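Protein entry
_____________
===
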Amino acid sequence: MKKYDIFGIGAALVDTEIVVTDDFLAKHGVGKGLMTLVDEDRQDYLIKALREETTHVKKACGGSACNSIVAASSFGADTFYAGKVASDQDGGFFVKDLNAAGVTFHRIKPKQGITGKCLVMVTPDAERTLNTFLGASLELTHDEVEKEELAASQWLYMEGYLVTDDERTKVAQEAMGFARKNGVKTAISLSDPFVVQVFAKNMSKVIGSGVDLLFCNQDEALSYTNSNNLEDAIESLKSIAKTFVITQGENGATAFDGAQIASVPGISTEAVDTNGAGDMFAGAFLYAITSGQNYEWALGFANAAAARVVSQFGPRIASIEYDRIKAQFNI
């Protein structure tokens, strides 16, 4: 019996989410709908500019894999998270917020520095735009990936954002290798079209001989496999992942369980904020399969969870919402 259902690795960021206008993005030269890595000065500039905005703001522990692990934990999975924070106020907030969600964090004492932060800017059309200062999370090492806890997990799950620099790519490669040698199943998300396009070589290093489960959206699938249509992308993904899931936004999602393809249609919902939809989907899917459900069932469950998070502001849903989704699926 494993101690943890899922061991996550990713950037440890404090997310600040705020509603902005398209004019704000244009005025300050922010690429809409993209994840852009920025330095501290650029982020400070944007924070000062955002202070003039008076719309709703949410703050939470974040980062893509973190959001997925929090979702899985909130549904009932036993989870562990490996990321790097600094010994500043934001670092303390991150750990406290993560623990409050029922997630165990590594025991490595943080050092001086600046905890990473992500500005999540949501426009009225529900599109999310990310500007990320990685801060201390850029210095993630193998020390934060506690091997004893990883070996005691059913699954290793990591975000594709880790491959945006060579040092963290090495950490991710090492974790993947350790997991395989210790009977831990491996899963990764491609995370973002930008990551797939610019850091494809590093992504391939981490995937190596193949992963047990790969998460991506349709754009990422097409880009990573150099395909012109979804059917060709699915065939190409079969050579690098034993199983995979492709989310398709309002068109639902498709999964390959190693033998068969299953699909679910999109769920009609009024989109308020698309931030965190893919993260919620991955977390809900991992919760479902670690609970013994098959891929087709997990696909419907994760699709419903993602639709729920899109219908409200922020990448989290209230505790009662997790219970309602489980009740909807007779859990």
User: Anything to note?
Assistant: The first strand starts at residue 4 and ends at 9.
